[in-house]
Amino acid sequence: DAGVIQSPRHEVTEMGQEVTLRCKPISGHDYLFWYRQTMMRGLELLIYFNNNVPIDDSGMPEDRFSAKMPNASFSTLKIQPSEPRDSAVYFCASSTRDRELWPLHFGNGTRLTVT
Amino acid sequence: DAKTTQPNSMESNEEEPVHLPCNHSTISGTDYIHWYRQLPSQGPEYVIHGLTSNVNNRMASLAIAEDRKSSTLILHRATLRDAAVYYCILRLSGYALNFGKGTSLLVTP
Predict the structure, then answer these.
(1) 3-class DSSP state for residue A84?
(2) Which residue in A65, A92, B51, B61 is deepest, having the highest Cβ count within 10 Å?
(3) Can you list the pairs that B65-72 forms with residues at least 24 positions away whose Cβ atoms lie under 8 Å?
(4) CB distance B4 to B100 below 8 Å
(5) Mutate to test the interface with A, among B46, B49, B104 (most CBs of A within 10 A)
(6) CB distance B49–A45 less than 8 Å?
(7) Which among B36, B21, B54 has a CA at the least distance from the CA of B97?
């Protein structure tokens, strides 16, 4: 099992540019989560999907952020236009519910820097 | 939603036990207590979880107070590789977990 795969690992872009982060969940997992981590706020949940359907997007900071899951093996998080305050590490995680135990499996993150 | 409170940081000597506390005074009866840790430059990884009874696995032990308003993650012999940020989390309504800032554990030789 390759685990959750995120790309790119690092992204540097200029303010105003569109940024797309990608995630491939573990095969067979039916939940997918996007998190953002900053020193100030820690690890925050942005949005999560179940069976490719967005369930809770209340953590998405504003309309500049959007997330899609066109199929069970791929998800994107897009920021348009990007701003310096979007600089953070973005994590994708996947899971499947197995009675009460369903640990989240995280990718290694994408470090985004907006200049 | 029930929230957790953890110390910002703790320090331990190598090969000594470490007790990482977590307060969750507003926990509901159906909330599971999850612990994750995050090693430098990696995503968080699952450590252990429990509901009411104490739990042990190969990584750690989880001690849950009788009133469930607090819990303690126990690393029996800390190693340098255990230096990480440890998160105590209650499952939110639905299925998502919301992390906070956790406890940064420093292990010194």
Answers:
(1) helix
(2) A92
(3) B68/B24, B68/B27, B68/B33, B69/B23, B69/B24, B69/B25, B69/B27, B70/B21, B70/B22, B70/B23, B70/B24, B70/B25, B71/B21, B71/B22, B71/B24, B71/B33, B72/B19, B72/B20, B72/B21, B72/B22
(4) yes
(5) B46
(6) no
(7) B36
Determine the Cα–Cα distance for residues A44 and A38; give it in Å rounded to an integer. 9
Q: How many residues does chain B have?
A: 109
Written as tens digits, the pLDDT of chain A (115 aa) is: 689 999 999 999 999 999 999 999 999 999 999 999 998 888 889 999 999 999 989 999 889 999 999 999 999 999 999 999 999 999 999 988 765 557 889 999 999 999 9
* Interface touch B94/A103, C-beta < 8 Å: no
